[in-house]
Design goal:
single chain, 180 residues, alpha+beta, eight-stranded mixed beta sheet, 8 strands, 27% helix
């Protein structure tokens, strides 16, 4: 009898949570998510549009519209990423270990600004804001880009290049090489 009550309580909680997400969407999570990103990386995350779940058979998938991620203060461009939409699937099990694994990420019409300075700092490494901690471990399995622009600035090498990117990006180096 006790197990039945726990099971019914769990099912009721899941149904209630699902109903709240259907009624209110995931927009209530935008501010807590932005705060968490700021605490972990020192970067500003702004989601101006909606944040909603997207159907997926394998992993939970989410879509955020009108997204901006800031660059560090030393960078020339204010933003690392400005995109019409970011859609990503999330592996839940690695989250329990403190790792972020995104099997698939899709960027719709992004403007990406990659920069490195003479001191060896770069804008694409999301440094931890906690002293002595390693950069934030984010693993992206597959990255696709629709109608993207990438700007690479490496003043020490006198490089300032712009490129259009459309399709699957195998590695970050592919983004860099497309702009050079």
């Amino acid at each position: 009898m006790r197990a039945l009550r726990w099971t019914l309580g769990f099912v009721a909680a899941v149904v209630l949570a699902a109903a709240l997400f259907v009624l209110f969407g995931l927009d209530v999570l935008k501010d807590p998510l932005a705060r968490r990103v700021k605490e972990a990386t020192g970067r500003e995350l702004v989601i101006e549009g909606s944040l909603r779940p997207v159907w997926s058979w394998v992993h939970p998938r989410f879509r955020a519209e009108r997204v901006r991620i800031s660059n560090p203060a030393w960078a020339t461009d204010g933003h690392l990423l400005v995109a019409d939409a970011v859609e990503a699937s999330v592996s839940l099990l690695p989250l329990l270990e403190g790792r972020v694994v995104l099997p698939e990420v899709h960027l719709a019409r992004p403007a990406i600004s990659l920069e490195a300075d003479a001191e060896g700092r770069n804008t694409w490494t999301l440094e931890s804001t906690t002293a002595g901690k390693a950069p934030l471990p984010i693993h992206i399995g597959s990255l696709t880009v629709d109608a993207g622009q990438v700007r690479c600035r490496f003043p020490a090498r006198r490089v300032d290049a712009m490129a259009r990117v459309d399709g699957r990006v195998e590695r970050l180096a592919d983004l860099l090489c497309s702009a050079l």
